[in-house]
Amino acid sequence: MMRALQKPWLCAAFIAASILAGAAHSTLADSPSYPIGAGDVLQISIYAGGEVQESFTAEVSSSGTITAPLLGELSIAGLTPPEVSQRLTERLSRGYYVNPSVIVNVKEYGGKVYIIGEVRRPGAYSIGDGLSVLNACILAGGFSEFAAPNRVKVTRVSKRQTQVLKIDLRKVQKGKKPDLLLQPGDRIDVPARRF
User: Distance between CA 173 and CA 47 in Å, rounded?
Assistant: First the structure.
């Protein structure tokens, strides 16, 4: 603890990382544009007549479906929470409830990004709308003392194509380059610096 106090910049970096990590989490949880996918857990509340009629959680299956009371299995993969809410509202108003209102929130994100290399805590991290490469590295504990943030690579596989995107996080930190938004399945590689 005494060593950390001797380095005020280290304390400041830790506080900034904590704030950004919290902000990233709340942004993900509240984002209406997040496309729902396999492994996501939804919190669904159905209101009718001014009262809660049903409240349940549903995990999105690998085929992109959930099971809802009264309605059974519904395909929702790729829809946003407001779109799922609208779909459920339409279905429930067909003979089940009068003027129902449905609230859908993502409780847990199933999509992951993978961070390897010179970060303090490499591993898999949940992703949602708005998570960027720099924020993901902060969530992974920040860079190690051997990291080369100016040579970070993001490997992205989409439609059977592999894309390697290079990003200089030093320039991103200084505001000279834009950060890259991540997609589920992205792999971030933070290389070691050359001595």
Answer: 45
Instruction: Check residue 185 and give its pLDDT.
Output: 80
Strands 112-117 and 51-59: unpaired
Rounded Cα distance between 85 and 91, Å, is 10
Task: Give the N- to C-terminal CA distance of the chain in Å, as an integer.
Answer: 29
Residue 115 and residue 169 share a domain = yes
Query: pLDDT tens-digit profile of 126-162?
Result: 776 678 999 999 999 999 999 999 999 999 876 678 8
121 φ, ψ to 5°? Answer: -135, 80
Distance of CA 78 to the CA centre of its chain: 14
Do the domain assignments include residue 195?
Answer: no
- Please say whether the beta carbons of 54 and 92 come within 8 A: no
140 contacts 119 by C-beta, under 8 angstroms? yes
